[in-house]
Automatic annotation (TrEMBL), chain A:
Residues 417-611 form the MacB-like periplasmic core domain. Residues 250-371, 638-758 form the ABC3 transporter permease C-terminal domain. Belongs to the ABC-4 integral membrane protein family. This is Putative ABC transport system permease protein. The keyword Methyltransferase does not apply. Keywords: Cell membrane, Membrane, Transmembrane, Transmembrane helix. It is a multi-pass membrane protein. GO terms for molecular function: transmembrane transporter activity. InterPro entries: ABC3_permease_C, MacB_PCD, Macrolide_Exporter_MacB. The chain crosses the membrane at residues 244-272, 292-313, 340-361, 418-441, 630-656, 677-701, 727-749. It holds the Pfam family FtsX.
Automatic annotation (TrEMBL), chain B:
One of its GO terms (cellular component) is plasma membrane. GO terms for molecular function: ATP binding; ATP hydrolysis activity; transmembrane transporter activity. It holds the Pfam family ABC_tran. InterPro entries: AAA+_ATPase, ABC_transporter-like_ATP-bd, ABC_transporter-like_CS, ABC_transpr_LolD-like, MacB-like_ATP-bd, P-loop_NTPase. SMART domains: AAA. Residues 12-235 form the ABC transporter domain. This is Putative ABC transport system ATP-binding protein. Gene3D superfamilies: P-loop containing nucleotide triphosphate hydrolases. PROSITE patterns: ABC_TRANSPORTER_1 (PS00211), ABC_TRANSPORTER_2 (PS50893). Keywords: ATP-binding, Nucleotide-binding, Transport. Signal peptide: none annotated.
Length: 766, 235
């Protein structure tokens, strides 16, 4: 054992570069693996984790206070199917004055009287301030990525108390917009009692309904006024995660494959290149088992160190990465649950060394069986050439000899080249997929930025109203320097006849397309025509050409759906101004969207707007955060995987250079210049790079075609064909260079080292 | 037997040549001249610096001190690229273990030397074939090194060394890895080449080879020239 350890230690010391390579590749690969698996894990169940952490209620139920007492509800909650319950909590619907909108609250909010944030069900995250414990205090439900600068502010409930904001809490299940102390809720005139249930059978909507029916079976008829299950919430909240999931999965799988391939390549290459050393050990009297031990130890030490450090680095890298990937309008809710799962770390720590050992085992066992003399002669005895037909054709090719020699090298070590090629293919697939994804998302982002400035009516900071009237304002904004086009937008709720849910009827004056790309059909031309998003069509079972009846304040109008847009809002119906005012004669714009001329200064226009009318607030259009997040994270992942693939190429080039030292020495002795050596070595890898591009580009295009529509479907949109049609000759030509670039980058350093080889030393050693 | 031979301008001039590997001096102040058409054998015990001397002349390694001038070019002052071009134009090398590329046929191994200079493949092959004919191995031109005998491999190596018509042919133990019959054939070949004017430097342990092939013998010990003798041509 001591001899094995000693020989292994000496071998590690002698092969510093190789040891460094194994360490580096296992480090980077394990890091990539941890991030990739972390992403796959986070993408597969982000909601479940956050929901589990909060012990979210499977069913939120509201009961009429005049029909059922709190005591009876508490008794009902002891039904056998109930795993845990919280409540009864008194619940009030409170109308909030306009100024309260400053706190992110709508017109009518749900306030619940609750003694604390904890409990067995619905443990809300009190992330700022404290809980409301006495009358006059309120805690608002707000995501933790907002600011807490409203703490201590007050608002007055019409015909009710003045409430001071003492805390902000986040409740994923959104059981309330605000909470007050139980002693305060009476003053807000509660009309309902809230119960929160966790059930044992909670997998399906039907199961949950059945469990709830069991709970409410013994209660008076009509006691249950409303209920919702967590599955609907999961669908809504998880839509962003569903958008991320397919792409994160794709990157995760690519990352894992690249990591495993490279490690296998590096480790098996290290053993093969050490055959001569194995022969010497055998000649010294090492048993085959001891030889195996030496090689496994030699590989395992740097590999285990690399894996351990890689796991640590992966965790460090993944945390901000996941935070970044899951930062978006609706994904901040997942922050608390983000992180690398223990199973990922365990798998990386045990799995990667296992891959290394398995990769080393095959060649080691082969070396173990080799007679000592043959092992010693490996490298110096003439071997039968490989792929000789290819070499012969290349020798006659009209190429510089250094290029044709390099082009033939990969065929001399087909297994090693195949592994390297696979890594390059995956690298190119990743680059292609990421490029297509970015192109589609840019196209989507550009569709979302058909205007540069949004001018809101009223200043939410001080409640000022605009000085100008609607038409006056529309004209004024169009006259300000830089403006080329102004579209007024109104938003009002209306009822879709035949449905219980309200729709948001949006009117546009002065332009039709603001932020939506048309997927099918056409934009509205006549009064009475509307366009809607794909989710609206799906939810309501509506098709293009169908007629809808909308009702508002006793007035009804029929509209025809003529186009399908890329809007993600399943309640949105968009019509021209005459169509909207036919139903709502008093509709007023809530905002004006201004398109500026090319190169105009957005900030200067915003200043001019404020100067023209202090009752307006201005928002400049920035880049889309979700598309920015996806493109940014895809770029990061692509760089990481390309780096790992380049390391694979680097390793192959190092091994090939080592294996062919004798040939290199001879070639230099007959007059091959250092530049020709570099060209030959780089060409040998560039061939794999070109082949990698040839295979990887179609794979990347397929991945784009499969993954991107699923991402879109995740957020209930259909992408127009032009957004998917991103593959053009110039882009494909650039991508074709990706594989070559990965290969050349990986081969450059070993190539230069090969060029600097001292011939006398090489030939003398042989 | 010992007579001075000064018949032509020196092709090689070594002056105070020193080569150190760490603290060990492989060559220690070697001065030597080799004239055009000469066949010089360098002999000495193992580790005396024979191969190092050959490497210095071939520009395969750089001296620690002193000068190596071959055909008027100071080899020590050449850049890496300059050295490569120098080897291409001036030097032909024959190694003990042949150093053929296993993946290339015998003909392509030889043609390679010319192709590296930019000669078209067809032209390089034509020249290689001529050499194969001259060396009597034309029938083995399409064979790969692994199936050639030792003697055949060394003949291929000689053909490769001659491919660019070098001014100087350097041979490092050319018969060291061959059986006696193959060794004889290679010796004959070297004699023939010298007889048609090829300047030759042979490093060897083999006294018979030195006697048969060389017109002058240089003896080395501990990195120094310890003797120089003119040899009678053997019959």
């Amino acid at each position: 054992m001591r001899a094995v350890w000693k020989a292994a230690r000496a071998a590690v010391r002698r092969r510093r570069l190789q040891t460094l390579m194994i360490w580096l590749v296992t480090l980077v690969s394990t890091g990539a693996l941890v991030v990739a698996l972390g992403l796959v894990d986070a993408a597969s169940a982000p909601f479940d984790r956050a929901f589990g952490a909060q012990h979210g209620p499977h069913v939120v139920a509201a009961f009429a206070r005049d029909r059922v007492s709190d005591g009876r509800l508490s008794r009902a909650a002891r039904a056998s199917g109930v795993e845990a319950a919280a409540g009864p909590f008194a619940q009030a619907a409170v109308d909030i004055p306009r100024g309260a909108a400053d706190f992110g609250l709508g017109g009518e909010i749900t306030v619940v009287g609750r003694a604390g944030p904890g409990g067995t069900v619905d443990r809300v995250d009190l992330w700022a301030g404290r809980w409301a414990v006495r009358p006059g205090e309120v805690v608002l439900n707000r995501q933790s990525d907002w600011t807490a600068d409203d703490l201590g502010k007050k608002f007055r409930v019409p015909k009710g108390p003045t409430l001071t904001i003492v805390g902000f809490a986040f409740d994923l299940s959104h059981t309330a917009d605000a909470w007050v102390a139980p002693a305060q809720i009476g003053a807000l005139h509660p009309t309902a009692t809230q119960m929160l249930f966790r059930f044992r059978a909670a997998a399906t909507e039907e199961g949950l309904r059945a469990e709830l029916a069991e709970v409410t079976g013994g209660l008076p008829r009509g006691a249950l006024t409303a209920s919702r299950t967590y599955l609907a919430l999961k669908h809504r909240i998880g839509s962003n995660a569903r958008a991320y999931a397919p792409y994160l999965m794709a990157f995760g799988v690519l990352g894992i494959l690249v990591a495993v391939l490279i490690v296998a390549n590096v480790v098996s290459g290290a053993v093969v290149s050490g055959f001569r050393h194995i022969g010497i050990l055998k000649a010294l009297g090492f048993t085959p088992g001891q030889v195996l031990g030496v090689y496994l130890t030699m590989i395992s030490v740097p590999a285990v160190l690399g894996c351990a450090l890689g796991t640590y680095a992966g965790n460090l890298l993944a945390e901000p990465f996941l935070r970044f990937a899951f930062t978006g309008p609706a994904s901040g809710v997942l922050h608390g649950s983000l992180g690398i799962a223990p199973w990922v770390n365990l798998l990386a720590l045990l799995g990667m060394p296992l891959v290394c050992v398995l990769a080393a085992l095959g060649p080691s066992v082969r070396a173990r069986r080799l007679p000592a003399a043959r092992a010693i002669s490996a490298g110096s005895a003439p071997r039968h050439g490989r792929a000789l037909g290819i070499q012969r054709r290349l020798a006659s090719a009209r190429l510089p000899r250094s290029v044709s020699l390099g082009a033939g090298l990969p065929f001399a070590r087909p297994a090693r080249s195949a592994l390297t090629l696979a890594a390059v293919v995956l690298g190119v697939t990743t680059v292609t997929f990421a490029t297509g994804l970015a192109a589609t998302l840019n196209s989507y982002g550009n569709g979302e930025r058909s205007y540069d400035v949004t001018v809101y009516v009223g200043d939410h900071r001080d409640g000022r109203e605009p000085v100008h009237g609607d038409r006056e304002l529309h004209a004024l904004l169009g006259r300000l320097p830089g403006a080329t086009h102004v579209t007024a937008r109104s938003d009002d709720e209306a009822l879709l006849v035949g449905s219980t849910q309200a729709v948001m009827f949006e009117g546009r004056r002065g332009g039709r397309s603001l932020d939506s790309a048309l997927v099918k059909g056409r934009w509205m031309r006549e009064t009475g025509e509307v366009v809607v998003g794909t989710p609206f069509l799906r939810r309501n079972g509506v098709h293009l050409g169908d007629r809808l009846r909308l009702r508002k304040d006793g007035r009804e109008e029929e509209v025809t759906v003529v186009g399908e847009t890329m809007d993600t809002d399943d309640r949105l119906v968009i019509g021209s101004w005459p169509t909207v005012t036919a139903l709502m004669p008093r509709a007023e714009p809530i905002a004006y969207h201004v398109k500026l001329r090319e190169g105009a200064d957005q900030s200067a226009y915003a200043r001019a707007v404020r100067a023209a009318d202090p009752g307006l607030s201005v928002q400049l259009s920035g880049s889309n955060s979700v598309t920015g997040t996806i493109v940014g994270s895809a770029t990061g992942l692509t760089l990481m995987l390309s780096l790992v693939a380049s390391l694979g190429v680097f390793n192959t080039a190092v091994l090939n250079t080592h294996d062919r030292r004798r040939d290199l020495g001879m070639l230099k002795s007959i007059g091959m210049t250092p530049r020709q050596v570099t060209v030959m070595t780089v060409t040998s890898m560039a061939v794999l790079g070109a082949l990698g591009s040839l295979i990887g580009i179609p794979l990347g295009i397929v991945a784009h075609k499969v993954v991107v529509p699923r991402m879109a479907a995740g957020v209930d949109i259909t992408l127009p064909r032009y957004m998917m049609d991103v593959w053009h000759v110039p882009l494909l030509s650039v991508l074709a260079l990706a594989g070559v670039l990965i290969a050349v980058l990986g081969a450059l350093v070993p190539a230069r080292r090969a060029a600097r080889l001292t011939v006398a030393e090489v030939l003398h050693n042989e | 037997m010992v007579t001075e031979v000064r018949t032509a301008d020196p092709v090689v001039r070594l002056d105070g040549l020193r080569k150190e590997y760490g603290e060990t001096a492989a060559l220690d102040g070697v001065s030597l001249e080799i004239r055009a058409g000469e066949a010089v054998a360098v002999m000495g015990p193992s580790g005396c610096g024979k191969s190092t001397l050959l490497n210095m002349i071939a520009g395969l390694d750089r001296p620690s001190a002193g000068t190596v001038v071959v055909h008027g070019e100071n080899v020590g002052e050449l850049s890496e690229k300059g050295l490569a071009l120098f080897r291409r134009r001036r030097i032909g090398m024959i190694f003990q273990f042949f150093n053929l590329v296993d993946d290339l046929s015998a003909l392509d191994n030889v043609a390679l030397a010319a192709q590296l200079t930019g000669t078209a493949a067809r032209q390089a092959r034509r020249r290689a074939l001529e050499l194969f004919e001259e060396l009597g191995i034309a029938g083995r031109r399409n064979a790969y090194p692994a199936v050639l005998s030792g003697g055949e491999r060394q003949r291929v190596a000689v053909a490769r060394a001659l491919m660019n018509r070098p001014a100087l042919l350097l041979a490092d133990e050319p018969t060291g890895a061959l059986d006696s019959r193959a060794g004889e054939q290679v010796m004959d070949l070297l004699i023939d080449l010298n007889q048609i004017g090829q300047t030759l430097v042979v490093v060897t342990h083999d006294e018979r080879l030195a006697q048969r092939c060389a017109s002058r013998l240089v003896e080395l010990a501990d990195g120094r020239v310890t003797g120089e003798h003119t040899l009678e041509p053997s019959v």
